[in-house]
Specification:
about 300 residues; alpha+beta; 2,3-Dihydroxybiphenyl 1,2-Dioxygenase, domain 1; eight-stranded mixed β-sheet; 16 strands; about 15% helix; globular
Length: about 300
């Protein structure tokens, strides 16, 4: 039986100044900062998680803010565009809102859907699409209401150095359904209501360079630890080298680089972000794993201060 991922678990990107990052994703886009922690491999760097009211899988975008770091280049071997889904009828609100915050918006269409395209302050390519499926966000912040708020990911566009190989992986190994080709794109779909669309750009693009304004990796969902180990064996049997399980506190992770040079992760849905903070206090404190707690004073002195601010 073919294994099938439910779709996107999270997307992780590299950005610049942490206050600019928080202002945009919380203050402008209205997402909730559900976790403020550190990069476990680089404890002098924040790791921010933004999502819906509890950071459900399929809603989570995460960031490593590198102030004054070098600018990256979006290209092959990366996620090129991250798409968010909003309720049907929400576009007028978003066009007005993004314009209010001096965000340049362009419109485009593909596969019968309209998109609002824009960039974040550090150059990440984003889109909004109206879709009925997926529950409305319960998080209220600033002028945001459930009738217009981002539900979670609509999907992602992959820039592969070998599109045919990446397409084969998505369909035959990850279990996504190929639902169409249009112009320069191939579209795949999972069974979930959100985070369920993956598109591959067919035409070649120059190789990307990791840095500020680029996506580091895209993670797909595993139901639990047992399912993740099944995924590890399944992906290895398809000829890919997969890392051992890495504990990430709020999920466990395995990684592999597919033949189009994009870093893929498979992450467990549990335990989630209420593991170490109550729901009503998510993201308020700097949370450290046990092995870094003895270094808290040193770590806090290195990290730049910031605030989650309502900008309306």
């Amino acid at each position: 039986m073919t294994k099938r991922t439910e779709g996107i678990h999270h997307i992780t990107a590299i950005v610049g100044d942490p206050q600019e990052n928080v202002d945009f994703y919380a203050g402008v886009l209205g997402l909730r900062l559900v976790k403020k922690t550190i990069n476990f491999d680089d404890p002098g760097t924040y790791h921010f998680y933004f999502g819906d009211e509890v950071g459900n899988p399929g809603t989570i975008i995460t960031f490593f803010p590198w102030p004054n770091a070098y600018k990256g280049r979006i290209g092959s071997g990366q996620v090129g565009v991250t798409t968010y889904a909003v309720p049907t009828g929400a576009f007028p609100f978003w066009e007005e809102r993004l314009t209010k915050f001096n965000v340049e918006v362009t419109k485009n269409s593909r596969f019968g859907e309209e998109y609002l395209a824009f960039e974040d302050p550090h150059g990440l390519q984003l889109e909004l699409v109206e879709r009925d499926p997926g529950k409305k966000s319960e998080w209220r912040f600033g002028d945001m209401t459930p009738e217009v708020a981002i539900k979670g990911f609509g999907g992602a566009t992959l820039l592969s150095s070998r599109p045919a190989y990446t397409a084969k992986l998505l369909e035959e190994t990850m279990g996504l359904e190929k639902v169409g080709e249009e112009g320069d794109y191939i579209r795949f779909k999972s069974t979930a209501d959100i985070g369920n669309i993956i598109e591959i750009k067919i035409s070649p693009v120059p190789k990307g360079m990791m840095g500020v304004g680029t996506v580091h990796h895209i993670a797909y969902r595993a139901k639990d630890d047992t399912d993740q180990l099944d995924w590890k064996s399944h992906v290895e049997s398809a000829g890919y080298g997969v890392t051992p399980v890495q504990p990430r506190q709020y999920f466990n992770a395995i990684y592999f680089r597919e033949y189009g040079d994009i870093l893929f992760e498979i992450a467990t849905d549990p335990p989630g972000f209420t593991l170490d903070e109550p729901k009503d206090a998510l993201g308020e404190q700097l949370m450290l794993p046990d092995w870094y707690e003895p270094q808290r004073d040193k770590i806090e002195k290195v990290l730049l201060p910031f605030k989650v601010r309502e900008l309306d």
